[in-house]
Amino acid sequence: MSRRGRPPTFTRDELIAAAKQLGPDDLGLQAVARALGVARTTLYWHVRDENELGELVLASILNEAGVRDWAPGDVPWDEWLAAYARTLRSTLLQADDWLRYATGRLFYSHESLVNADRLVAALVADGFSVEEASKAFTMVSEIVFANVRTATEADAPKEAGRNEFLASVRALDRDELPNLRAALKARSSISFEMQFEYDLACALSGIRAHAAHLIDRST
To answer: How far apart are the C-alpha atoms of 119 and 115, rounded to whole Å?
Structure first.
């Protein structure tokens, strides 16, 4: 974006901090300008509109979701992936309503790319090819995003479909579908976090088994 005029008296970090203070529901360029004590037009030095400002705030939150301060080889690859997945999920959930400003660009910030580079390096250090490391990283990331979307999005059509399904089961004779009824009853006690840990454990086990298969095939 081309910028005209003098640079503003506030920094981008100060702009983000003011927006965070207002929160996603009260975010607006005029409100942020008022909080900073500046004219609204000066905000355009840093952002085009409210959406870009919200994206900057969310990016600053997501940048905190880095892997731990380990070097490749410090811990096994599965600890790297598990720590990354749990930290990313926790950070996304903390972002809460700021997720409305999510775009694909958020995951290509400098900090996000540095974290991804370190994680791939850790996998390669443990014997993964770059291709296999990329697949493992992508798979675990997708599990995180899917779990967070399910936990945070209000999906009316999906909820209506679920209620219709439950009503159909309950309308049947109580002796019918005993296994499905038991599964549905058990499902009601499974939290999003429990499901995430299950999905993550299955993913890591699958990656581990696949890696062992590749090693066996190459020998």
So the answer is: 6
- Fold designation for 12-61: Arc Repressor Mutant, subunit A (1.10.10)
Token pair for residue 60? Answer: 């600053």
Separation of alpha carbons 198 and 8, rounded Å: 49
pLDDT less than 70: residues of the chain? 1-6, 64-72, 104-109, 153-163, 165-166, 215-219
3-class DSSP state of 139: helix
Q: What topology does CATH give the domain 66-153+189-218?
A: Tetracycline Repressor; domain 2 (1.10.357)
Q: Give the ranges where the chain is alpha helix by DSSP (H).
A: 12-22, 29-36, 50-62, 77-95, 110-125, 130-152, 156-171, 178-187, 192-218
pTM equals 0.70
The three-class DSSP label of residue 7 is: coil
CB contact burial 6-27 (16+ within 10 A = b; e otherwise): eebebeeeebbebbbeeebeeb
pLDDT tens by residue, 1-45: 445 556 778 899 999 999 999 999 999 999 999 999 999 999 998
